[in-house]
Amino acid sequence: MEKLLCAPSELLVKIFEFLPASDLASLAKTCRRFRDVVAIDQIWHDLCQKNYKVSSLDGWPLTSYKELYAIVLHRYGCILGLWKLEVLYYGALIYVHVQNGKIIAENCCPPFDCSHLADPLRLKPLFEISIENKTVKTTCVTGLHTHHDGIVKVNSTKRCQAEGFTFLCSKADWHNIKPVQSQNIGYLQQWLVEEYNDGNIFSTSPHLIHLILSRYAAMHNIYSSNLRFNRLSIPSTVGHNDSIVLPGIYKGTYSSHGIELIMVCDCKDRILGTKITGDPNVPSGEITFDVDLTYPLEEGEEDNGSSVPSNNKKHPFHLPTGYFGEIPTHLKYYVRKFKGVGRIANTGFVSPQWTNNILYVFEKNEFGILWTELRAFAMFRRTEEEFLQN
């Protein structure tokens, strides 16, 4: 012990960097020497970087990494990352990250409509955690009203990561849908512009109007209780160089429901798609398609096949007669196709059933599916945002 006390501070810093914050706090109470070493900010800089990938004080009204860790990251660093917000049928993909001296939770919204599949995701702020006079402040930043307070509660943590958390808005009645009022009409128009790039839905079909208004009501009435977030893990692409389709989060076109976000996993001999965001027919969290890679189809074959087309051979792709769907102009050839099944259901996920489909592989990060029962074609494109890569 005496030799350790006499060791150079630089050496003690290197040793202490391997300790968790709780052990450092205990160590600082043992003697003045260790207290002084634990106060060296390099230790806390390395902890912020190692545990939460935060390596800058830019924007924070703080003077040290020790303050940043003690005031903010110790309590809320565990919610950084990707989350799935439970919203009735719809769900939402939430990205919590550090930006400009705040922890910001943003809703990762798909592009406006099916013709913009290649566009990046749209990030809409949900809440933020900031510092005022060295005190944590949580703020709800959605809606027409001014920003207002909120409360974040972490369920449990494991290795500096929360398994789940909740957010409670202090002004829930500011979000809930009430009888028609002028401010609600303004809120609806703003939401339509943000979600669909169009403030006037009354020029569309009655069916589409019903879908849009149902989603609008669901997305705003959730504030009457705790918003619940469950951690979302993206499958790794390591070791998938030979994969037919890369795993990850994809944007998929779902006709009148627009673009939805799908988690695609390569499970040995299968490609499985699970909805992150959903709709009243097939909700968030449900499997949307299941493709068997042991059933490749030959060119011109639609129902079954056993031989595998050449990996390098490209085949012209044409949408079959009687099918509807948008095909990007750059996709003229496919390289593989496989037999699979897809999930369809009536509104409310009533009478769900599996129907045959065919998956066409254009690139490792882009594929299409023919839904034979619906006579529809859907495109799927892997997201390119850096924070969604693994």
Automatic annotation (TrEMBL):
UniProt keyword annotations, A-Z: Ubl conjugation pathway
Domain F-box: start-end pairs: 1-47
Keyword Iron attributed: no
GO-annotated biological processes: protein ubiquitination
InterPro entries: F-box-like_dom_sf, F-box_dom, FBXO31/39
Associated pathway: Protein modification; protein ubiquitination
Record-stated family: Belongs to the FBXO31 family.
Protein's name according to its UniProt entry: F-box only protein 31-like
Native source organism of the sequence: Actinia tenebrosa
